[in-house]
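Work Package 4 report. The design task specified in the project plan requires that, given a folded chain encoded as structure tokens, an amino acid be chosen for each position. We show below one input record used in the internal validation round.
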């Protein structure tokens, strides 16, 4: 019975039509809503899951094929929660580079700034030295406690050929579908055994807890041997 405590921000470039709609993807994911944004804090998974080139597709059986081994994605990422009065928001900064035959290919350098607003909305802003700027809006809508509808919509500079943002959206889709494979086969542990590189996961869980009420549907998990 409590009214909204924060408002969804407006993306100025979309409102002024500097950036125009260039496409969208939609997926159903068999997972609890918290698992999806928690990915932002799990920076250690980037090299393993998203390091293999997108040319290998989204099927994890083939992403590490020697056929595509000549090309790699390299990620540097940092996640943090925002302070008051925006404690309902968090930030993820990603620096993406690509290597081809172990040589840096600067044309693929990309800076991504992802701002999460609330439990299910993310603004992923792209900055490229030659190909301009744009944004992907990610919305996560629970259909059932363990079924989420995830939509990605891309808006990009209207003076940039549509093929550029469509390629970016396709690349993002391939990487996201790799995550879906993991989520659909993952068991959530309330107290996972974490190494130092995974400390952001617990930090993210403490931040995300603010979005639950007393009546919220929470994950029911087994605590077999890991309830320390």
């Amino acid at each position: 019975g409590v009214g909204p405590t924060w408002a969804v921000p407006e993306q100025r470039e979309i409102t002024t039509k500097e950036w125009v709609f260039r496409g969208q993807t939609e997926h159903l994911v068999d997972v609890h809503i918290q698992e999806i944004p928690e990915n932002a804090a799990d920076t250690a998974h980037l090299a393993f899951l998203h390091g293999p080139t997108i040319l290998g597709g989204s099927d994890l059986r083939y992403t590490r094929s020697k056929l595509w081994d000549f090309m790699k994605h390299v990620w540097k990422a940092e996640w943090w929660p925002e302070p008051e009065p925006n404690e309902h928001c968090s930030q993820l900064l990603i620096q993406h580079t690509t290597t081809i035959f172990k040589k840096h290919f600067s044309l693929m350098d990309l800076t991504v700034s992802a701002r999460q607003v609330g439990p299910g909305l993310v603004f992923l802003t792209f900055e490229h030295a030659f190909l301009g700027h744009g944004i992907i809006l990610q919305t996560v809508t629970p259909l059932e406690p363990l079924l989420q509808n995830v939509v990605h919509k891309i808006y990009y500079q209207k003076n940039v050929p549509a093929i550029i943002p469509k390629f970016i959206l396709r690349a993002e889709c391939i990487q996201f579908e790799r995550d879906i494979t993991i989520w659909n086969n993952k068991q959530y542990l309330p107290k996972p055994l974490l190494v130092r590189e995974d400390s952001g996961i617990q930090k993210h869980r403490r931040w995300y807890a603010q979005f639950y009420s007393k009546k919220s549907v929470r994950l029911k998990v087994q605590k077999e041997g890991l309830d320390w």
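The first strand starts at residue 19 and ends at 29. Validation will be extended to a larger panel in the next phase.
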